[in-house]
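We both want to read discrete structure tokens more fluently, so let's practise on a single case. Once you have written the record down, we can walk along the chain together.
***
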Amino acid sequence: MDPVIVVGAGPTGLWLAAELRLHDVPVTVLETREERDPHSKAVTVHPRTLEVLAMRGIAGRFLAAGMPIPTGHFGSLPRRLDFGVLDTAYPFTLFLPQADTERLLEEHARELGATVLRGHRVTGLEEHADMVSVLVAGPDGPYRLRACYLAGCDGTRSTVRQAAGIGFPGTDPTVWGWLGDVVLDDPPAGPLSVSGGDGGVMVVPLPGGVHRFVGVTADDLRPGRPGELTMEELRAKVARVLGTDFGMHDPRWLSRFGNAARQAEQYRKGRIVLAGDAAHMHFPAGGVGLNVGVQDAANLGWKLAATVRGAAPDGLLGTYHAERHPVGAELLRHTMAQTALMTAISDDGQALRSLLGSLLAEVPELSRTLAERLAALDVRYAPAGPAHPLAGTRAPDLPLAGGGTLYGLMHAGRHVLLDLTAEDASGAEGPGLPHADRDPWLPHADRHRARLADPGGAWAGVRAALVRPDGHVAWASEESTSPPAQTWA
């Protein structure tokens, strides 16, 4: 019997598999596709995802393959958000086609020992008190696998979610966006975004001499799916908004997508968990979907590993739903708001877009707040009971006196205890934390005595902090003798 089976070898499933392998949990990933999808739905990696990658020491691989872009957009407003003001070591969005992201994530997961089986389609499951039985159609015929836990990372049409009977309530589509990856005879000088009374179109150059067109026009505001997108329709839509089709030809990929917004009622049901698009479905506004999925997996991975290994406090796995379901709900809320802005093509709608664009220019704090939300730097998990203001917040990549950073201490995927009572940067003995053994995670934590190179802001006065494997602060204390009596996952 396998400890964990992950269904879906997209970014979410691959990152979950890698996180489990960091804790020596055997994991098998089942993927329906025989080959990696060459078409990249997503092309953006956001700052918090880059931080997650940096915690495992592999952010450099992605940076080398992608292109940093210092801005992002909210609802395709002409005034772009400045990511350069964000408090992160990665103050930009990384332009990187999803096919490359998946390739790098699969390499990482396989390096850690994950088994990835392609051409293996899950057809059903049976949940028992002590295990889950998974029915699979493989290249050599049907077979059955058994696992302690099953993770559904298999997209919006998730077989795992449906077979488990987990509800997926929400709204039906009323808008149909479209996408075309094509070759151009007369391409624009660079990326282009135009919105007006006829609709909106974004144009982005992709590797290999291909340009991506994404947009919505007036006749796309309808509940029923219009049918398959044709090259002739794409040309007409683009020309209507931009005045030219740039001599497009040789389509590589034509697709439509709706604005249905749905969220799983439960992210965990018994021995079944959901993550990524299997847990939340939304219009692809702002390029956040892939990123939230990876962040789901970062939250789930260490909790599931500890549960499988018998090292988890009671109720730990339940905190996955408690922490990530609100994040998913907020994801739907702001992508729905962006969809409303992107489809605001009436005169009133254009006035709204103009007003918001002006506010973004005139109120830098508004721009920063929206950028933080898109980047997922604002996510805070609610601690149980009174706690230090840092508890539940994301820990930035704190620079340490004498060299190194916090994320450099987190490559093993364990809790990290920062004992900031050191008297000097060499790590000399300070007052210590003699009562720190009250925290159940400390026996499993990597302890580092150090000083912060710049102990300012929210970290001013902090003498000790426990940072979870997903980079969120479990607790912080300004006392040198003991952490809080009640600690938090």
